[in-house]
Amino acid sequence: MVQEEIVYQNKDITSKVLAECFKGKTFKVYGLDLPEIRRVLPTNLPTVKANELRLDNLFELADGTVAIVDYESEYILHNAECCLM
Questions:
Q1: pTM of the entire structure?
Q2: How is 15-83 classified by DSSP, letter by letter?
Q3: Rounded-to-integer distance, Cα 62 and Cα 79, Å
Q4: Phi first, then psi: what are they for 13, rounded to 5°?
Q5: pLDDT of residue 63
Q6: pLDDT grade for 62, boundaries at 50, 70 and 90
Q7: Region 31-38: what's the mean pLDDT?
Q8: Residue 51: pLDDT above 60?
Q9: In which element (H, E) is residue 14 found?
Q10: Among 26, 50, 62, 81, which is most buried by a count of CB atoms within 10 Å?
Q11: Does residue 68 come out as left (phi exceeding 0), alpha (psi in the -120 to 50 range) or beta?
Q12: Taking the CA of residue 3 as centre, how many other CA atoms within 13 Å lie in the half-sphere pointing to its CB?
């Protein structure tokens, strides 16, 4: 019997797959008053260097702005507070 290993980024992969269902939804469930999501955008953002900055999810909102969402496996209050500005 071959035992398959679970990839290290399994939670990120699951979140990205589920994010495809977020079109037309909002972030109000998280307590954020943002416009609804217009579409899910690509997350492989090229940088000036020869590497890429990878995001968990990038959404285009109904008002033309974007929301960068990074999922954390552990809840750390400081992370939540510093990002909600």
A1: 0.47
A2: HHHHHTT-TT--SGGGT---PPEEEEEP-EEE-SSSSEEE-SEEEEETTS-EEEE---SS--HHHHHHH
A3: 26
A4: -60, -45
A5: 94
A6: very high
A7: 92
A8: no
A9: helix 10-19
A10: 26
A11: beta
A12: 1
